[in-house]
Amino acid sequence: MFALFAAEEGGGGGLQFPPISNLVEWPNYFGDGTIFAFNKIGLISMLALLIPTGMFLLSKKELVPRGLQNIVEGAVEFVDKQVIQSAIGPDGRKYMPLLLSIFLFVFFGNIFEVIPTFQMPANARMANPIILALTAWAMFIAVGVKAQGFSGFMKSSLFPPGVPKALYLLVTPIEFLSTFLLRPFGLAVRLFANMLAGHILLVTFGVLCIALWQKSALAIVLPFSFATLVGLTGFEVMVSLIQAFVFSLLTAVYISLSLNPHH
């Protein structure tokens, strides 16, 4: 987030608001114009991968957990109880590596939105959400095929029991769209849209605070604008956690539906 005070044409001063492209597009650090181009989004995505990996590698296994081990065990316990047990059940623990990885990657990718100098959630660009959604999509299909066989999985997905045969002409295309297209699309868009909306809100109130920082009657509004900005920042921290939870929970729900199609 940034705003520039610049002289207008003719020598007048004024506040120059950042164009919308500056909120989501970042210059490349290197590799400009190649497939190896690397910018702020790439850096945040790499950090979202390396930070949780480092946390697990550096945490010491002690009988009485403390410090970093507390955080790591808390994350594992949260995903186990709130995601796996609630959506799949005890048999779902074998999917812990996938669901925990998704949860931590999404959370750390989101939380950089409120970290100074970064101030951008990696998931406010569609690349990460769509890759995660396609991973979840491939996973629940693979689980369904393994558990039911290919024909059994397709039958349970496209031909729900209890529906009159004549209605399958209408129900089957809807089930196909819902299961194989809308699920990954909904996962990706939900995460992307929520993080982009929050980012735009923070930028808007940040620029507003800068605009009100002047010797005029408008300065009286500045404390209220700043308080709103602080409140929204705290709210975005909560949203970062909620979106990570929702993405991992829905992935678990889809896996559960592939394992138990009639529940």
Distance between the first and last residues' Cα: 46 Å
Helix content: 55-70%
**Oligomeric status of the shown chains?**
single chain
Computed Rg? 23 Å
Count of all domains: 1
Explain what the structure shows.
Helix content is 66%, strand content 3%. The protein is mainly alpha-helical and 263 residues long. It has one domain (4-259). Strands 1-2 form a two-stranded antiparallel ribbon. Helix 4 runs antiparallel to helix 8 and helix 5 (127-148) packs antiparallel against helix 7. The longest helix has 45 residues, at 168-212. The N and C termini lie far apart (46 Å).
What is this structure, in a nutshell?
The protein is mainly alpha-helical and 263 residues long. The chain has eight helices and two strands; from the N terminus they run ββαααααααα. Helix content is 66%, strand content 3%.
Key attributes of the depicted protein:
263 residues; mainly alpha; two-stranded antiparallel sheet; 8 helices; 3% strand
Secondary-structure blueprint:
Layout (H helix, E strand, L loop, with lengths): L3 E4 L5 E4 L4 H4 L15 H19 L9 H20 L8 H16 L15 H22 L1 H9 L9 H45 L9 H38 L4
Helix pairs in contact: 2-4, 3-4, 3-8, 4-8, 5-6, 5-7, 5-8, 7-8
